[in-house]
Write a structure and sequence with these properties.
6 helices; two-stranded antiparallel sheet; 85 residues; alpha+beta
C-alpha cells in the first residue's frame, strides 16, 4: 500500500521494542485503512475491525471518524457506523 500526505503521517504511535524505535498506526487509523482497502482485504474484515475497535473500547467513534476523514472514506463508513452505534 502507498500512502501520501496526512494519510501517511497521521495516527502514528512510536514505541521502543527491544531498543528499536518502531512506528505503528493506532487502532482508529487502522480501522479507516481497512475501509479504504476493503476491496483488497474484504468488507467483512473491515466490518470486523470496526466492531472490535468499538466493542473492545480500543478507540472512540470520534477518533475513527477523524481518521475516516483523513483517509477519505466517510461516505463509505457512515452507514456502517450508524448501524453499529
Amino acid at each position: 500500500m502507498r500512502f501520501s500526505g496526512k494519510a501517511l503521517t497521521e495516527g502514528i504511535n512510536e514505541h521502543i521494542i527491544e531498543g528499536v524505535h518502531v512506528r505503528i498506526y493506532n487502532t482508529a487509523k487502522t480501522v479507516a485503512d481497512c475501509f479504504k482497502y476493503r476491496n483488497k482485504i474484504g468488507l467483512d474484515v473491515a466490518l470486523e475491525a470496526l466492531r472490535e475497535a468499538i466493542r473492545g473500547r480500543k478507540c472512540t467513534i470520534d477518533e475513527i471518524w477523524r481518521y475516516a476523514k483523513v483517509c477519505r472514506v466517510t461516505k463509505i463508513m457512515r452507514p456502517y457506523m450508524e448501524a453499529i452505534v
